[in-house]
């Protein structure tokens, strides 16, 4: 399954079980927006990430941005404490993490906290934890400040979205342990 097919499955399930949350999702990024961000970051995005951004760019409108948080996104999805980033927020968080020489810390090339080939696509508001895609091979990893970074948690963005679709299926069936729906929105217990 492609990333577009997997994301479409997620969006269809979200529309079924949480239509109010689904309605909050904005339209797609454009090729010029993506190309400009790639140029500013100095790295091409993985094709899966590009394809996903062309479906939905999840940047909040400027008037909804809170100056007291580092990262912005649509709260409550995919879980209670994190959210997907739009192209503007990806670029901002990438700039925060990237380092000259490409690795942080530079003396740990085999086990770094961050590599410049990793593009964040999901974060918490403090930018202390999230998920990234490795532009070299499309694998998905997880970072958490102060802990070892996990690379290869999912083989692809499509695989990650499939896991979200499975979670939403459980929510819609009333069998998810910590999430249900209330008035068309996901509700985390």
Q: In brief, what are we looking at here?
A:
It contains six helices and nine strands, in the order ααααβαββββββαββ. It is an alpha+beta fold and 189 residues long. It starts with a helix and ends with a strand.
What does this structure look like?
The protein is built from 6 helices and 9 strands, in the order ααααβαββββββαββ. The chain has about 190 residues and is of the alpha+beta class. The chain is globular. The chain starts with a helix and ends with a strand.
Q: Measured on Cα atoms, how large is the radius of gyration?
A: 16 Å
- Taken in chain order, the helices and strands follow as HHHHEHEEEEEEHEE
- Mean pLDDT, to the nearest integer, reads 86
- Work out the helix count: 6
Q: Classify the secondary structure makeup into a structural class.
A: alpha+beta
Number of strands: 9
Strand content of the residues, in percent?
A: 15-25%
Keywords:
single chain, 189 residues, alpha+beta, five-stranded antiparallel beta sheet, two-stranded antiparallel sheet, 9 strands, 34% helix, 19% strand
